[in-house]
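User: Please run a holo structure prediction.
Assistant: Happy to. Please share the sequence and the ligand.
User: Here you go; the ligand is acetamide.
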Amino acid sequence: MLKIENLIPLPVFIAPTHNEFRLDAAAQIFIAPATTDTLRVANFLADDLRQLTGYAWSIVAEPTGRSHNGIILSLHADPSLGDEGYELNIASDGILLRAAKPAGLFYGIQTLRQLVVGAPETSAQTATTWRVPTGSIRDTPRFVWRGAMLDVARHFFKVEDVKRYIDWLARYKLNRLHLHLTDDQGWRIEIQAWPKLTAIGGSSGVNGKNSGYYTQDEYRALVQYAAERFITLVPEIDTPGHTNAALASYAELNCDGVARELYNGIEVGFSSLCLDQEITYQFLDDVIRELAAMTPGAYLHLGGDEAHATDKGAYIQFIERLETIVRKHGKRMVGWEEIAQAKIPAQTIVQIWRGDHAAAAAQSDVGVILSPAKHAYLDMQYNEQSPLGLHWAGYVEVQDAYNWEPATLLPDIPERNILGIEAPLWSETLLTLDDIAYMTFPRLTAIAEIGWSPQAARNWDSYRKRVAAHGAQWAQMGIPFYRSPQIDWP
Ligand code: ACM
């Protein structure tokens, strides 16, 4: 049983009452009111608890009063909980979870789920009682954008692996999955108007490993799986640099009309779309149209980083034109911070990774996402001995990932412009889901807490104690996390 004080991210308000609620084989889930939304989150909880406990977990509409054996999910709640907040009361005779919106119920369920799992005496399926610590929680997130990015371009990861990653994001209340779908080493999303992008550009990967791509149906399945977990998928087509896979697929996208060779190294900054040919814009219009059509979320990420092989003036004009194409297809453009050099309208979102263009982003008064490489890049090695990862931004131990404050990170960026934070995971050195897990835990949980919990409540000593308790859960879940020497693991 995880102590109520050990939750990650730390809730805004917790009052433990030092008792326990026992889940047993007759326990039920009650929904109030019974709607498709409440049924959907109840089903999610029921499936999860069935797997964990082996009990039936029937779902019952409209409780008449407080249940004496079960979990009530109620949308009759204080509207000040907002879109994502929840109130959870765990008493020895039942659990009441209230939220104003379904997403809030979902996050309350994640809190509950952390508390149920991890009882040392509860080896799955064999336990006869499952206990939850009692207490009250009231909780709302600090930021609206709580993201993670997965690079499926350098090495491709199959749909099932991405679904596991989505599961991990959901458990820690993250709500954006940014998929880096294209780069020099691979093009990973089917575009029907340009089939050679995947036929040729999807056939490579770093060192010739993990090639592949998602069909549009597979991509839609990921969108759906994420949406069921209140996660918005944000697809990225990196432009005008990081485009060798496209340039290898179609000769006509190159200024000299000659197709590039496929690339399986890890250098950056050598490729560029040809910006003074109309076919480039026809290509982008087709890609953005198809991507917009299969992406219900509001955002399309168009990259814009490290365009070292592109003329600066041409780059600026390109970004401005690109933004109009994204807007024409009904979406908001997201780009890496270099795009702040262009004139971009207020609905554009700038993702900071180095900080060099923070002042320009502030001047444009756009929303920003903070992904400072020295703190939030999950692909940085933990230390000199780390078997995976790179270190161009430094080594990022768990304390480095945890100990930073978005509002004071960059003097140019005031808190009102910060939409939130995001932890990118670039995959040059990663081949398997286990590799991903090792780089992700225990750093993604640090980033999740920065995104959700009030700054005043956060501190490293508390985090390092709580994360140790989560290590036991990760071990039970078979997640091969990094056993950082900064944490006293049990
Ligand atoms: C980046 O790391 N090139 C955004």
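Residues 305-306, 336, 353 surround acetamide (CB under 6 Å).
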